[in-house]
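Write out this protein's structure.
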Amino acid sequence: MTTTHGSAKWQGGIKDGKGAISTKSGALADYPYGFASRFEGKPGSNPEELIGAAHAACFTMALSLILGEAKLSAEHMETKADVTLEKVADGFAITAVHLTLSAKIPGADNAVFQELAGKAKAGCPISKLLNTKITLDASLQG
């Protein structure tokens, strides 16, 4: 269907080095990343927050499609994806992603909403890509 790209540059060692992330669309253009932004909370981006943004976007779009198939349309949906990076025996791994969704969907009852959100969690392409535990808290606003 489609192929796109992101890219990264790096110079220096792991702790003193500097990197820059770019996307084909230009949404990110040489945006800084490095050890300090990844592990020490310093300014800049990191791969995990980019995965979180991608997963939140993918899940929310997938849910929009599934809602449409059920003859429902969201007035508002907001998803946050918390991506957990942990030290494991052979280095580091993303050990979990927790999706938190808040949505206002006229005409939807909570049981149907939970079922459809679960389908979106399992079916979105980023969920399928990630080899980790994915959990979801979905709340329907009145």
